[in-house]
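Hi everyone,

Forwarding the result from last night's run.
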Amino acid sequence: MKKIVLSLASVLVATAFAPEASAIPSFARQQGKACSTCHFQHYPALNDYGRSFKAGGFVDMGKQGTLKGDNLSLPEVLNSSIFFKFRYQDTNGSDLAGTGNSTLASGEWQIADEFALLMGGRVSENVGFMFEGQLLDPTAGVLAGFKMPAMWGVGEGELKIGVVPFSTDALGAAYGFELLNTGAVRNVRISEHRAETSAQQYIGTAQGAQGLAFVVADPMFFVNVTRYAPDSATDAKMNLTYLRVAATPTFGEWDVAFGVQSWTGSGSEHNGTATDLQYKAFSIDAQAQGAVAGMPLGLYFANTSAPAGSGTEFNLFNCTTTAGACTGHNPNSKKATTILAELGVVPGTATVQLGYRKADTGAATNSKDDAITVGATYNYTQNIQLQVMHSTRSKAGNVGRYAGSQEKGSALTTFMLSAGL
């Protein structure tokens, strides 16, 4: 407890003396609009305007000037930004003394947990791009993610069709095109504790991928059919399929969405292994964003399952692992249901969160892995955020346990300062 209090105090001091941000990230610069124009309560959660901008391929110029000519429509500047996360994490487990085998149970500062260069915006009238380059790990490649959506309007309405070539090191096949905030894609979620508050993230659908997303998008719905390959597929055979269908209607003052996701197929060369793996999972998710008693309220639900593998092929989303590689079948389906609520107690500034996960690891015994998460966010400015999360998990042997070399923990606490510059 003493470590937690001191750590929280340190982060609060850093936030209190942070200068007021005079710059905002790439897309806000291009549009000449505040971060809150596209985000619900706080980044990265999207509102209806943010979904429209993303569905349009990042090409809306707002007030920024363009260089125009025959078959040319470029921004006057290449918009860029830096995004980082500073975290402190601790579990209630314990480590073996004097062995040097320390884990999160000893408390760990992660400065930075993430440090990325982001660029994005308009390439032409109908083509945009987004690039993420990691600046933290000298042993990893610079390219963490890239997509180049080409979207065209159909008729006189807002219906668009397009294709999105993409590559990502860890965000999953959904990275090509996704608009909801349920954790359907790893980097668009409400809580930093992603596996505790997003069923898709618990199942493990966030993997490396490269492929083509074929998209139909409208303010009332979107469809994404993606053919993709695993991240390390040297032959780049796109023999895996990701399907996403979602409706995004409005009921009164409430922005509502619900949809399904499906991952199918089998392929080899995942993370350097030559063994064929199955990529099979299915998810139903929904969200509602509105206000109660003048306070913004977001509700997020997901139910995701991954069947056991068959024959000699392990299901990447549901297998036993050794040193990070699939080495055996789980006998049952791996599944999770998550519910998360976030209330803006100080609209535009502070929120509180409450989440519940009911999960099964798919193992033959001790498979229960439920979790409860409480948390809060504080926006010092629209692009500087402090987040505090605490999750407790069920205790069944080592299932649902956090780091600890002597005794694994049943609770995880995170203090995080993040910002986009």
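The chain has one domain: 2-82+116-347.

Cheers,
N.
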